[in-house]
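Standup notes
- DV: blocked on the single-chain target, sequence here:
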Amino acid sequence: MKSQKTAFDTTNLSLSQQIYERLRLSLMAGRYPPGSRLNISRLAQEFGVSATPVREAVVQLVREQALELRRGHQARVPVPEIAHYIQVRETRVPLERLAAELATTHITDEGIDELEALHRSYVTCEEREDWLGALAANQSFHFRIYEASANPVLKSVLENFWLIAGPFITNQYPALRNAHTDPHPHNSLIEALRRRSAPEAGDALVRDLRDGSYHVVAWLKANKLRADGTVAKE
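- DV (later): unblocked, structure below
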């Protein structure tokens, strides 16, 4: 399998933009659970930079609603609310369908092979109970489809939805394991792409989104989250 590419190229970016991209990918992958507070001084030490570019990156993420910031407090990852999560999901559905349909025209056979490899990695990580690895492989799988749509505007919009929705699913593993129907929507999508069937590809990607989201909503309804993102015990 080829080495996984990052979703950005930092070559010509400013220092604050490089840090923004790194934080952005971490949020998409669920590496900061809901309620997590981002300490600017600690992040600056981790990145080996001054506090200024980190602060600029955090402010940008606050503007994009990936983080929230109250006066006198550190920026934190929002704690999920069911209504907001559903709004994000329903807005994504037609755009995800469009991305899959466009990908049937533009994706190469090698690109489809790479999707198969990413899905195998996703399954292997779940079997090993490597939840962050599973999230990362799943994200890479979907981002390859966005790339294959050959529509940069659509790709950017969908990636931003992952930025907002990523932390929602962090606390749900291992409850989300095997959340999908059989055959797995990834496999159905891969088969549709090989047949160059746009309607089937769109249906498979939407089913993938909905299958997982129903389990997220069920988990959120069953587990009341505190302001720090931890589960409140009855």
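- Follow-up: The longest strand covers residues 37-38.
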